[in-house]
């Protein structure tokens, strides 16, 4: 009898395990909820002066699994912002507090996180690391009357076909990220007209290649995309895919492979010399991850459209952000800490402007609001809730002279308004058309 | 498909097949002797890769030093495995499959956590061995030198394993225990010690495989996942308890994957599952698996 029950259970569980593993997020089967108050030793003075219940901002980020670093770094930036705001008197005289739900990078967990927050009375959420988690969570946010502030996910659909009243985005969308990259290349590498692409075989990969094709065809008369190849998510071997492109007479390689996948490709292309005489153009690669790669001497030159890079922006907000963050964490802030930082700033400013924590009032305050961030002013468009950046940084990253680390040779700033189509919520982004 | 593409597909497929074989051989050996489907195998494999980084560093090493580093990583993992076998596995042998599944899966989570705590969350990378980071020209096709390196090491290990299992007294003992552990015990073989040694040796192979993979991959805490799933496909296709079966299956599946990328690339991600389905339908015990295996696992 015991076997009769246990065996099917074992098989079921085994299937579950394999399915989770295939999703690339098998790090932890139970999700953790960590709540932190305004952190750090310095909070005492500020919090003591504050009264009333804390206002809780709920993070929906990956704290474990393959993309754990994204959430852990964002948390550091968010904690800095909370400490500063509480020290300066809080929001509406109340202290800010952070709560965390671990999504392990999976959309199902993002939805679960939203429901958990709902049951705890948390209305203001931020994070959302992947496009699939934004797409999955936004109908739930509408249903539960909660707000989502995305600092990562890029799919154009969220401010076009799948526009949701409860969703706001303070990072670049795929269109503005890819077009700013293409603009920088048009300016700096005008001879690169023939391209190939090695991008991931899921929606984001195909979409970014379409945007790149559309932007380049619009602006460069002789532009050609000679060949494309589509490795699956977390492919361990790229040699076969590189072989597909190796004989094409291209001057540039466009790739939106993600994090570890990108590093695998960069390593495995080396024996082929695939990138030796080509420009590599990538989107949203946190250059932190290049450091170990540079240490092994395998780093090729590349162009990277990364919304925030500490040295690219010269303004008082950025200077003090770098100083304070370095003092608190002993590291230079990168894209992810910056994301967590500006998520808290944005909510704090919106709640203050709304004069209450009423969801509708904060929603209305966010629409059209301008936030001064370390990367300059960002304005959230009222029509489609997409932030328009004063400037988007596109970096030229090269191995340093010693060959043991990377350096940023150049940062080209592209005005966000020039590379973002007018708002058309509910309709397809014109750059999404197959290009 | 051009002649160059054909050549490179064969080399890529075979070299990836050998890498998978190194992972799968340990899995198969441990199942064959201990009767344990070890879901933590990928975790030990990953630790092997990180140990190689720890011992060898990021910069390129001479090929011989790199091989020493790989063997040392394998030994490190083997010691860890022996400790695990003695402390955690021994009390478990009488337990049900489900308990084993839970135990080994939780071990794989522990290994990921340990790697995260030890080496941090940012991916690490390691260079190819010096002089093996370029490409050979074969019939006009560029063949990565490191792929050839992997094939050579793989062949040495295949031969070594065959000699160990077929020609030595140790091999006889291992085969006797795999065949019938009760009878082996009755004949005076210390099965408890054999279990520890076989588990340590199987995981030595996993650690070695991790080190061999290290120059081609970003080292992250999920490194073991994809390889483990594919290694499971390999041992099922080859026959769960057959090491020669695992060798044939790894190379066949590696080739199938390479040729699908070159021809119908959108089907390539499913190549391992195609192989699995076809074999399970036609020959459920796997290419070289024994009929008895079916009784064992059912």
Q: Structural class of the helix and strand makeup of chain B? A: mainly alpha
Number of beta strands of chain A: 16
Counting DSSP H or I runs of 4 or more residues, the number of helices of chain B is 12
Poorly predicted runs of 5 or more residues of chain A = 1-48
User: What oligomeric arrangement do these chains adopt?
Assistant: heterodimer
Q: What is the straight-line distance between the termini of chain A?
A: 60 Å
Q: Output the radius of gyration of chain B.
A: 19 Å
The overall average pLDDT of chain A, rounded, is 86
Structural class of chain A: alpha/beta
In words, what does this structure look like?
- The complex is a heterodimer of chains A (435) and B (298).
- Chain A is of the alpha/beta class.
- In chain A, 40% of the residues lie in helices and 19% in strands.
- Chain A has 13 helices and 16 strands.
- In chain A, the strands form three sheets. In chain A, strands 8-7-9-10-11-15-16 form a seven-stranded mixed sheet, sandwiched between helices.
- In chain A, helix 4 (107-120) runs parallel beside helix 5.
- Mean pLDDT of chain A is 86; it is low at 1-48.
- In chain B, helix 1 packs antiparallel against helix 8 (191-213), helix 1 (3-34) packs antiparallel against helix 10 (243-263) and helix 2 packs across helix 8 (191-213).
- Chain B is globular, with a radius of gyration of 19 Å.
- Chain B has twelve helices and two strands; from the N terminus they run H-H-H-H-E-E-H-H-H-H-H-H-H-H.
- Classes of the chains: A alpha/beta (435), B mainly alpha (298).
- At the A-B interface, helix 1, helix 3, helix 8, helix 9 and helix 10 of A face helix 1, helix 4, helix 5, helix 9 and helix 10 of B.
